[in-house]
């Protein structure tokens, strides 16, 4: 009975310890890779959601109003109301071009700001 108390547990050999350390390091690296991929996916989703929420549809709405106005101007021109058609075409063209230019500059600026 005394012999059992006096014997100590054997410490693992260096090769066994090295193997367990390598296995644990590999599992940690795999976990790190998986977390990195998840973070990248979530970051992309956040960038898309931020872009959708930034305009709340106002830019698209104003561009569609521009298209509607250009269609109305063509209709007025066909109906021989040239002054009204020209006025509607100028205002609608201004709306359409302003928001189209804003979108193009905003997209270029965002590509440099957020790498997705």
UniProtKB/TrEMBL annotation:
Query: Which sequence ranges are marked TM in the entry?
Result: 85-102
Q: Which domain of life is it from?
A: Bacteria
Compositional bias (Basic and acidic residues) at which positions? 9-23
UniProt keywords (A-Z) are:
Membrane, Transmembrane, Transmembrane helix
Disordered: region residues: 1-23
Per its record, how is this protein called by name?
Uncharacterized protein
Source organism per entry reads Candidatus Woesebacteria bacterium GW2011_GWA2_33_28
């Amino acid at each position: 009975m005394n012999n059992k108390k006096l014997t100590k547990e054997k410490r693992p050999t260096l090769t066994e310890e090295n193997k367990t350390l390598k296995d644990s390091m590999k599992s940690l690296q795999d976990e790190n890779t998986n977390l990195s991929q998840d973070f990248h996916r979530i970051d992309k989703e956040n960038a898309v959601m931020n872009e959708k929420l930034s305009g709340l549809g106002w830019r698209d709405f104003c561009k569609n109003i521009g298209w509607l106005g250009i269609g109305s101007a063509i209709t007025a021109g066909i109906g021989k109301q040239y002054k009204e058609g020209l006025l509607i075409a100028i205002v609608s063209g201004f709306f359409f071009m302003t928001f189209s230019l804003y979108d193009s500059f905003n997209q270029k600026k965002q590509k440099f700001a957020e790498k997705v």
